[in-house]
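Predict structure. Chain length: 275.
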Amino acid sequence: QRTHSLVGASDEAVQRILTAAISGAVGSPQAATQAEFEVRACIEDLLRVYEHQLRGQCSDALAQQLQHFKHVDGLRKKRAALLVPQPREIGKENVAPPVQALQAKDQISVEWEKRHTDRERSLQSREQRVADASRTNEERAQDLEVLELRLKEQAQAHAQALAKHEAAQKEFKARQETAERELRLQQQEELKQKCLVEEGQAVSERKRALAVMEASIGEREQRLAAAEAGISAREHAVTAAEAGIAAREQTASAAEASAAARAQAAAAAEARSAA
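Prediction complete.
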């Protein structure tokens, strides 16, 4: 069951690592960092499962060793009890045992010695296996300690890397904000310069337009002055013509008056002639 749990944890870790690797391969640097943290977390989970399983195996091995030690202790106690000489019954100290009983006892002793030797060998073999298992468990315990130290170091390194990553993110964010502020200031300065240049160009265009307008107005004023001069000359000519006409009219009036006087004189002369 523990082997199946370790295999399942290993398969799950492989799937998580593949998923993190695929997502980090096509993503941004932040996705790659997140994938690295995910892989580290998978490895830590896998080591934690392995450590739990190894501790369970060590506990089972220690329980078996304790059971074996109890069994060996019981056998030793039985052996010690068998080796203790049995007290003879009272009144039979001087009675010699029968020959068949002695032979049966010798045969039992030989068989018992053989069994005892086999048991001793089996016990030595078991003690050797127990010693090997104990040494293996000690080595596994040392490996567990080393793994724990490595896990602690990895956790510390992970925490340090995370802190460095957070600090780098903060620094990057601060630099990005500073760069954005500088860029905005530069854009504002460029916009101001552009506005000033455009305003200067507009002022120059206005000045040129004003100069053209002033030149056109000057030409118009010159034309108006010339027209006014022509009009004045024409007015003078008209005034002179009117004066001539008036003089002619006066001359004509004088001539008419003279003619009328002559006619009257002629009429008077005719009247005198008729009288």
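Summary: The helical segments are 2-25, 29-83, 99-274.
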